[in-house]
User: Which sequence fits this backbone?
């Protein structure tokens, strides 16, 4: 992942847009490593919305819990996590949780199916970004180096695992 956010150990999994920081409980507090990675992917997916990365619409505004923009951001994060779990080959252990979580947020967007389609395409973009598969043309800033994005820093899932193992 180019330009990744910082991580800190916490009692819950979260992403703070104002500090561009991901909090993750220790791996031992999860039932399985698959659940740990699914959760880490979800929070990393949130971080792709930051102005330094994909600069998603409404990301900078504080989103209130239960609002449409909040539901959409949760959908994007969870769909991204599901895609990355599939790529990592761990989806069989995480799919059920993911599907249950997605169902909750999709129910809130019933009135606007366009939001769902838009969330799916943004999730694809987030997954591509995390994997380092986006070209400069697809990024929000014309000159990625100036936004601190180093496109040559491709992301590998095993590198990420190494990162998590050494971070705590
Ligand atoms: Zn979330």
Assistant:
């Amino acid at each position: 992942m180019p330009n990744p956010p910082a991580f800190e150990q916490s009692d819950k999994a979260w992403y703070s847009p104002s500090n561009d920081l991901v909090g993750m409980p220790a791996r031992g507090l999860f039932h399985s490593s698959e659940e740990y990675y699914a959760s880490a992917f979800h929070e990393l997916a949130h971080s792709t919305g930051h102005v330094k990365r994909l600069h998603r619409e409404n990301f900078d505004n504080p989103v209130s819990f239960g609002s449409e923009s909040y539901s959409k951001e949760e959908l994007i994060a969870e769909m991204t996590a599901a895609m990355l779990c599939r790529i990592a080959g761990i989806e069989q252990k995480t799919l059920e949780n993911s599907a249950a979580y997605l169902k909750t947020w999709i129910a809130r967007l019933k009135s606007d199916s366009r939001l769902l389609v838009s969330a799916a395409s943004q999730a694809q973009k987030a997954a591509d970004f995390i994997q380092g598969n986006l070209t400069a043309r697809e990024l929000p800033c014309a000159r990625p180096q100036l936004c601190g994005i180093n496109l040559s820093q491709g992301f590998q899932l095993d590198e990420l695992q190494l990162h998590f193992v050494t971070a705590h």
